[in-house]
Amino acid sequence: MREKAKWAGSFYSIFGKTMSKIGKQPIVIPEGVSVRKDGGYLIVQGPKGALKIQILPYISVSIQEKEITFKPDIETKQSRSNWGTLRSLTQGAVIGVVDGYEKQLDIEGVGYRALMEGRDLVLHLGYSHPVKVKAPEFINIGVDKNTIKVSGIDKNLVGQVAADIRALKKPEPYKGKGIRYKGEVIRRKAGKKVAGTTGSK
């Protein structure tokens, strides 16, 4: 029990210091981006749209002309965690409203293909019927040959939609058929060898 408590204490110490280090870093507000407080939220608006981020407990946010800074109100493990988390979420939002995020997935398999019907992604994955995926609000889905592109300003939402699409037909380990992230390496398994039969003469 003592060893476990010692390990846990060490982990929280390292984790807290890491999050504090992240939280201390100010965020520069790029040209064309505005950040304001609205109740318990930060509203980040830029060329590609706007995102709303909840201000986490125990954290104060200061918005200067071209800079956002974060400071914990109290010194606890939770406040240190929230400090770094809120800073990371805000930085992600600033990047999202300026550049956006994109995830690409490749389809591999004979007869497997993807196409768009309006904003809906239609997948032919070897099932008896095509699978239709409706693009959520603020998410764009496109198809270029056998590559699916998921894009938007919300990093977490882009990642979740891409993960949901991949889960519809995960790449199998023998021939690699299915949907994978672009650049994803699938650890292949050797196929079962078919035992030959020999007839006696």
Describe the 3D structure:
The protein is of the alpha+beta class. α1 (2-24) packs across α2 (77-98). The protein folds into two domains: 15-98, Ribosomal protein L6 (Outer Surface Protein A, domain 3), CATH 3.90.930.12; 101-181, Outer Surface Protein A, domain 3. The chain starts with a helix and ends in a 20-residue tail after the last strand. A hairpin with a 2-residue loop joins β11 (139-144) and β12 (147-152). Helices cover 29% and strands 34% of the residues.
List keywords for this structure.
single chain, 201 residues, alpha+beta, Outer Surface Protein A, domain 3, 2 domains, four-stranded antiparallel beta sheet, 3 helices, 13 strands, 34% strand, elongated
Q: Could you give a short account of the major beta sheet? A: 4 strands, antiparallel
The arrangement of helices and strands along the chain is: HEEEEEEHEEEEEEHE
- Radius of gyration (CA) equals 24 Å
Shape annotation: elongated
Q: Which secondary-structure class do the elements indicate?
A: alpha+beta
Task: Count the E strands.
Answer: 13
- Biggest sheet strand order reads 11-12-7-13
Distance between the termini: 71 Å
Q: CATH topology of the largest domain, what is it called? A: Outer Surface Protein A, domain 3
Provide a short characterization of the protein structure.
The protein is of the alpha+beta class and 201 residues long.
List the topology elements:
Elements (H helix, E strand, L loop, with lengths): L1 H23 L2 E2 L5 E5 L2 E6 L2 E6 L4 E5 L3 E6 L4 H22 L2 E8 L4 E5 L2 E5 L6 E4 L4 E6 L2 E6 L2 H13 L10 E4 L20
Antiparallel strand pairs: 1-6, 2-3, 3-4, 5-6, 7-12, 7-13, 8-9, 9-10, 11-12
Helix pairs in contact: 1-2
